[in-house]
Each structure stands twice: as C-alpha cells, then as structure tokens.
Amino acid sequence: MIPDMGRLVRRGSEEETLLASVDFKKLPRHVAIIMDGNGRWAKKRGKPRVYGHRTGVESVRVTVETAARLGIEILTLYAFSIENWKRPKTEVDTLFRLLRQYLSKELKTLLDNNIRLQPIGRLGDLDAATAKALRRAEAETSGCTGMLFNVALSYSGRAEIADAFSSLMREVKKNDRAGTTVSEKDIARHLYTAGRGDPDLLIRTSGEQRVSNFLLWQIAYTEIYVTPVFWPDFRTRHLLEAVLDYQHRERRYGRV
Ligand code: FPP
After folding, report:
1. Residue whose CA is closest, atom 8 of ligand 1?
2. Which residues line ligand 1 (CB under 6 A)?
3. How high is the mean pLDDT of the chain?
4. Would the pTM of this model clear 0.85, i.e. be above it?
5. Contacts 24+ apart (CB under 8 A), 98-106
6. 38-62, pLDDT tens digit by residue?
7. Which residues are part of the catalytic machinery?
C-alpha cells in the first residue's frame, strides 16, 4: 500500500510517479546518508558556505519526514565528523547553532511522525548547549516507536571502532574474563549502533565517491548510491530515486 506522504508528494507530480513504482515490501530497512556539497552549492551562488548549511537544514527536514512516512526503520545522517572540528570556528559554531534551531523547531514534526531521535558519536566533545538540546530531544522522543533517526556528531568510523575496543576491554576487565579471541559479534555489541541493523543503503550527495570514515564497520555489505545533487538541493524526489535504484540491485553478500 502506498503511504500517505502528506504535503511531501503533490498530486500529478514526478514524485507521485516515483512513489507508485516503489515496492514497499522491499524497502531498505536502514538508510545512511553522507550529506555533502553544502559549501560548493553556496559558492556556485556567490554566497558564504554557511548559506549552504542553512539551506541544507531544509533538506534534513524533508528527508527525515519523507523517510519516516515511507516506512524506513532507521535513518542515519552524517552531520559532523571528528575531522570537521578543523573547520573555521565560525563555521563550526554556525553548524551547531543550526542543529540546535532544528531540534527546537522540528521536535513537533518528530513527535507527529513518531520518530525517535538518537545522536551517535563522541558526544562528550559537544558544547553544553548542544548536548543539552540533544538530551532533551532524545528524552522527549524516547517513547516514539516509528523510525529511529540517528544523527552522527563528532563521529568517525575509526574512532567508533577504537571506542568499541576500549569498551570491550573495560568489560573484560570488570568480569575478570581474560580471553584470547574477539569475535565480530563482540565488536558489534560495543559500537554506537549496537543492536541496530547495518545500513542497507548508503547515499552520498555531491558526486564524491568516498566513504569518508562513515560507519566503516557497518557498511561491509551496504549498497552505495552516489548522486551528483548537492545536499541543499536534495528533496523527496531524490530519496525516492535512491530507493528505486536500490530496489533494482541484487544483493549477494559474497554468495554466487
Ligand atoms: C557537508 O557539506 C555538510 C556538512 C559537513 C554539514 C551537514 C550539516 C547540516 C546540513 C546542518 C545541521 C544538521 C542537522 C542534522 C540539522 P560541506 O560543507 O562539506 O560541502 P563542500 O564539500 O561542498 O565544502
């Protein structure tokens, strides 16, 4: 059955045609997105980079609601990497201000769409105001049973794996359970995404064909979809195109 997409899909639009082609029995369960191209999008318009980030928030808003209404179970957005701390302070401050504004303005949309927000990453690196806004949004949406929305902040895949090993070592020490082998399950159990399924589909915008330290452990068998569209232009139509492309692929997990 085609879900109710509300204002996101107008009658007679291209989105409506795309939506009609989606096989809702074969939706990707978990979609991860590397949101890229905000700076280049702004530069093309002769504007400062932060203008791209501001417009990118609108893309986040539309993508989160589209994914939830489609019936995707988990959406993970790469909002700020550990490497991003090296950007100019004014740009970093703007990004976190935009995130705080998003959290206060969009809380109602998250609740109305039964979306649970959960940040992942080295959250101890964040400033007090952002950490507080995230804790509040996480607490207020904790009872939501629909889509899980992971927002990756001060995140890097290698740091996550290192943190998983540190956590595993603490566990071994605490239980006095010295062993000599570590299984894949042991590592997965200590990742920020423990207990969630790995992404089925990874989308990267702006045409760059890189993984950029995102979910390195979890994307072992993930289908990758790269679109030339810059993140501030990404809308419902582009998410539907990515889902349709995914549905035409044959996933073999190393088998013939
Ligand atoms: C990549 O573009 C984008 C980011 C590093 C930040 C993404 C953040 C937002 C859209 C806003 C806040 C987030 C939420 C969840 C509300 P880039 O700056 O690397 O672009 P470039 O490669 O063209 O320079």
Report:
1. 79
2. 35-40, 53, 56-57, 60, 77, 79, 84, 95, 98-99, 102, 151
3. 96
4. yes
5. 98/53, 98/54, 98/57, 99/130, 99/133, 99/151, 99/153, 100/129, 100/130, 100/133, 101/57, 102/57, 102/60, 102/61, 103/133, 103/134, 103/136, 103/137, 104/133, 106/61, 106/64
6. 999 999 999 999 999 999 999 999 9
7. 36, 84
